[in-house]
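Review session, final week

We close the course with one last complete record, chosen because it touches almost every idea we covered. It is Sugar transporter 2, a protein from Hibiscus trionum with 518 residues. Go through it on your own first, then we will talk.
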Amino acid sequence: MAGGVIAADSGSNQDFPAKLTGQVLICTAIAAFGGLMFGYDIGISGGVTGMDEFLMKFFPNVYIKKHHAHENNYCKFADEYLQLFTSSLYLAAIVASCAASFMCKKFGRKPTMQAASIFFFIGAILNLTAKKLGMLILGRLFLGAGVGCGNQAVPLFITEIAPAKYRGGLNVCFQLLITIGILIANLVNYFTSNIKQYGWRISLGGAAVPAIILLVGSFMIVETPASLIERGKKERGLKTLKRIRGVDDVEKEFEEIVRATEIANKIKHPFRELTKRPSVPPVICGTIIHVFQQFTGINVVMFYAPVLFQTMGFGSNASLLSAVITGTVNSLSTLIAVFSVDIAGRKKLLIMGALICLVAQCAIGGLLKTYLTETSKVPSGTAKLVVGLICLYVNGFAWSWGPLGWLISSEVFPLETRSGGFFLAVATNMFCTFLIAQAFLSMLCTMQAYIYFFFAAWLVTMIVFVAAMLPETKGIPIDEMVERVWKKHWFWKRFYKSSDIERPKASIQLENQDKQNQ
Ligand code: BGC
């Protein structure tokens, strides 16, 4: 790895003695509830914004437009406040994930997850009891703070407690729980849409359940050894390491963590480190993967599937049912990634997934262009075909860009810039999600069926980028990415030509110390 990090991290590719203990599985399962909170929120907003009572109470203009006989199909949901309801959460999440990256370092991963669950719980209660639009948006901001803290702390937590050889599979559990959260939200919406007056309150208040589970569960989980050691609690770190690995022989791994954290701790300004030349390749690839993930158009389906289906003339209940179907496809398809990501490799999955999404988007665009005019309904056979194509599209996304966006951005950074770099990735994801959530309904209104070709063009761009620019990271130990991936890549290697000059001083010092000691 670049510079002295070799000294600190080279042991990471050794197989440290470890069992896949119950402790690790329980901790992963509990922490992944952070993903479920996130997913629940993604899924719930679309259904709720299709419910008449909710619209009547908070967005009467949209309600009137929706029921206006001659309203343009593509524009009946366009309302900037309705968009703000969905997107405000993501703005709060960006700010929160920045604060969370400091909190993770200073107080640990566990308290950051606890903060996430408390924010999320408050947000859910505010939404459950909302009387005015302001209260509703305030609730969304709290939920956003919860999502920001959770998305920053949970993947980091899972990565640090997982034994190296199970890291990939355990990491994808975060995405799996996101998709299960979306599915649960779709089911909840399906049932509550039949409850007049307060069905939407149950839907929004339901977010409190995963928050409580995460909060209560967090008292049962351990802090990660790396975080304990980083904060000077070496003995506790060692004890925890023995407990989660299920073996006594953990000295090598312990030493490895101690040395790696020594290097990381000597770097006073991790964010400044990210602006240096050797950080350019992981920063570009780790963040652009999230831009691309969002510009597959996935959240158009996740947030607005019920709204989209209503646009095609499905009744409100049928549209929610269709959203349940896409949610099921999403969860089941994510399992494919759990088992194939370490066999097929990241690049193959990304390219194949994008090709499937591309075919589906073009077909949907073509069908809607032909059959959905501004005021007509799509014929029922065509509408069903479109639902089928949306399922195909979700399937392609679920085993590729969904989990791999999170996985790749968490594995491409060297230790000293990992948490700062990962913050950039999370913030990019949240910002692009915000853009899509905020702009989609207006774009649908102006671009109409062409919107699907807009996303198709992005898919072509990402296929080219992955094929030419993204290195394969399958099977590479997380701490050897620079040596074995970036320095070997036909393009990115130029950023390392003078890497010795660019090496962090602390790393060089440590390596010199090593030489003296020998
Ligand atoms: C993305 C979300 C998306 C979800 C769908 C996640 O990886 O970050 O924006 O809604 O996948 O399953």
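Two points worth writing down before the exam:
DSSP finds 26 helices and no strands in the chain.
Residues 1-14, 500-507 have pLDDT under 50 and may be disordered.
Good luck, everyone.
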